[in-house]
Every structure is written in structure tokens, then in C-alpha cells.
């Protein structure tokens, strides 16, 4: 996709972080912008910023982990702007803690947003784009955490690896159809966003309750680590550029943190050489 003016972008998780950055860049490129997010208050503020940049904006408060809400988002986008040309399939959350300690609810939430929500985005918007037959692009947001593993956040890794598999497989199928849709898989390392505060954006059915886990050292240490890695990540100002370069150059894998590339390579090399994984790998 090379032309952006007057095209429509749908962005999930648009009220903060990557989604908000991409929404502002869409406005600068004179696109119409559909900003979807579960956080109504932040969405109101962020969508006003994007409007102030001159864009036509539709703000939709919704939960990507509910299929009917994704369908409703598409309907609202089409009613407002008539087409969907770019999907930034981005909304995500992070959880930490061991598999055997984390409440099942935390798994369900992480999987619900990061995997099901992402899949719902493809399921709903791919047919719309195919029908349009115009050049379209979908960026699925995974992470470097979908390409290598660390010990602290198994649910997050599980979801981000799933997004890698989902996106590669969908992309092969679209290629085989010679479809009008190109895809990118966005895999950044740590970036300064609001991700470590995602607990405050849990849908009601996944709300933190009186489960003692939420008072435990595991939970609190996990939160502190998430806060540390996100707040010491790279500044967010390079995100929109890397995403749009990927779209314009039809780049499938968009990696933004070259320091992790040797570790990704070593992980694959260890597999091919039959070596067992070691936590030493990610300490390099
Ligand atoms: N920040 C990083 O270091 C980093 C690195 C790699 C990948 N990512 C991924 O980038 C994506 C965006 O995260 P971010 O860092 O910009 O975080 P962020 O918290 O700043 O923004 C995420 C947005 O998604 C929204 N959201 C959360 N759950 C939702 C739901 N169920 N429905 C709709 N909206 C929902 C939040 O309200 C928030 O506005 C996520 O998929 C995340 O996993 C982030």
C-alpha cells in the first residue's frame, strides 16, 4: 500500500501507546481514522488529539476480545467511511507470573485480547478487504517476545508466539490467493508505552478480585518487572515511522530492536543443532 490519502485505517488499542502513535501518523497522511479502544476516557482524549491534526475520526469504545464487538466495529467503520484499507491489529495486554500460580482468569484475559482479539480482527476485516479488491494492508502486532522467550511472562510469550504463527499462516494463504491484502508482523522489543498499566483496563469479567494471588510476591514482582522493562524501553517516537516504512515497502517482518537479532538467531541455531535451551541465551 503506497497511497494513504483519503483511505481508512482501523486501529485497535488506539487510545495509548503504539495505536495512538499510528493514529496520529494516519492523520498526518490525511487518512480517515477509526480509533477503537476499551478505555473510553483515554480514547476521548486521544481521538481529540487526532482530530486536532485535521483527520476525520470515529472513536469506538469496544473490547477486542468479544467477537460481536469486533463485528460491530467493522460495521461502524464501513457506515462512517465506506471502506477499510489499513488494519493496525494492535490491542494487547501483558501478564507475568508462573503458569502454575497465575489465576486461570489472567490466562483467559491475556489469550482473549492478544490471541482471540487479533484473530477476530483478521476474521472480520479480511473478508471486507477482499471484497473491496483495492490495495489493503494489515499489521498484526506481536513482539520480540513472540520470537524468543524469557522466564518471567509465559502467558505473554504464548500469546505473542501465537500471533507469529497466525500471521505467517494467514499471509501464506493470502499470497496463494494473490490477494489484494499485504500483511506485516510487527515485533518490537521494549518501548515506552502504558502497557505496564494494563490491569486497569481489564474487562469486568477478568477483573482483579480477592484471589490471594494478587497480594502475592509473584504478582507484585511481575508488575514491578513489567514496569521496569517498559519504562526503560526505547522512546515511542520511532514507532509510526517503522510501521509505515513496513507498510510502504511491503515488509513482512518488522523488527525494531537489532540488539535482539543475535539472540533470535542463537535460539534457532540451538534448535537446529539439537542443543537444549538455556536461560543464558537471553542474558547475552
Ligand atoms: N510496549 C512494548 O514494549 C511492546 C513491545 C512489543 C509489543 N508490544 C505490543 O504492542 C501492542 C500495544 O501495546 P502498547 O505497548 O502500545 O500498550 P498500551 O497499554 O500503551 O496501549 C494498548 C492499548 O490497548 C487497549 N486495550 C487493552 N485491552 C483492550 C481490549 N480488550 N480491547 C480494546 N482495547 C484494548 C488499552 O486500553 C490501550 O489503550 C500490544 O499488543 C503489546 O503486546 C508492546
UniProtKB/TrEMBL annotation:
<dbReference type="Pfam" id="PF00106">
    <property type="entry name" value="adh_short"/>
</dbReference>
<dbReference type="GO" id="GO:0016616">
    <property type="term" value="F:oxidoreductase activity, acting on the CH-OH group of donors, NAD or NADP as acceptor"/>
</dbReference>
<keyword id="KW-0560">Oxidoreductase</keyword>
<comment type="similarity">
    <text>Belongs to the short-chain dehydrogenases/reductases (SDR) family.</text>
</comment>
<protein>
    <submittedName>
        <fullName>SDR family NAD(P)-dependent oxidoreductase</fullName>
    </submittedName>
</protein>
<dbReference type="InterPro" id="IPR002347">
    <property type="entry name" value="SDR_fam"/>
</dbReference>
<dbReference type="InterPro" id="IPR036291">
    <property type="entry name" value="NAD(P)-bd_dom_sf"/>
</dbReference>
Amino acid at each position: 500500500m503506497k497511497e494513504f490519502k483519503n483511505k481508512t485505517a482501523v486501529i485497535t488499542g488506539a487510545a495509548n501507546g503504539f495505536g495512538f502513535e499510528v493514529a496520529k501518523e494516519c492523520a498526518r497522511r490525511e487518512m480517515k481514522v477509526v480509533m477503537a479502544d476499551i478505555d473510553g476516557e483515554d480514547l476521548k482524549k486521544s481521538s481529540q488529539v487526532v482530530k486536532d491534526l485535521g483527520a476525520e475520526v470515529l472513536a469506538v469504545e469496544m473490547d477486542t476480545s468479544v467477537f460481536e464487538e469486533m463485528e460491530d466495529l467493522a460495521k461502524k467503520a464501513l457506515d462512517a467511511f465506506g471502506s477499510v484499507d489499513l488494519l493496525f491489529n494492535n490491542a494487547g495486554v501483558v501478564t507475568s507470573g508462573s503458569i502454575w500460580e497465575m489465576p486461570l482468569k489472567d490466562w483467559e484475559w491475556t489469550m482473549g485480547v492478544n490471541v482471540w482479539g487479533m484473530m477476530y480482527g483478521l476474521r472480520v476485516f479480511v473478508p471486507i478487504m477482499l471484497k473491496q479488491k483495492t490495495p489493503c494492508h494489515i499489521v498484526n502486532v506481536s513482539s520480540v517476545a513472540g520470537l524468543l522467550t524469557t522466564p518471567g511472562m509465559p502467558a505473554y510469550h504464548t500469546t505473542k508466539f501465537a500471533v507469529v504463527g497466525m500471521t505467517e499462516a494467514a499471509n501464506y494463504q493470502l499470497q496463494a490467493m494473490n490477494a489484494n491484502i499485504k500483511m506485516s508482523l510487527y515485533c518490537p522489543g521494549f518501548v515506552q508505552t502504558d502497557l505496564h498499566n494494563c490491569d486497569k483496563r481489564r474487562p469486568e469479567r477478568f477483573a482483579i478480585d480477592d484471589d490471594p494471588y494478587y497480594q502475592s510476591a509473584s504478582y507484585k514482582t511481575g508488575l514491578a518487572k513489567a514496569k521496569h522493562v517498559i519504562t526503560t524501553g526505547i522512546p515511542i517516537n520511532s514507532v509510526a515511522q517503522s510501521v509505515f516504512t513496513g507498510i510502504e515497502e511491503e515488509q513482512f517482518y518488522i523488527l525494531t530492536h537489532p540488539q535482539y537479532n543475535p539472540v533470535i538467531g542463537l535460539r534457532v541455531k540451538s534448535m537446529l543443532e539439537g542443543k537444549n535451551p538455556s536461560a543464558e541465551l537471553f542474558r547475552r
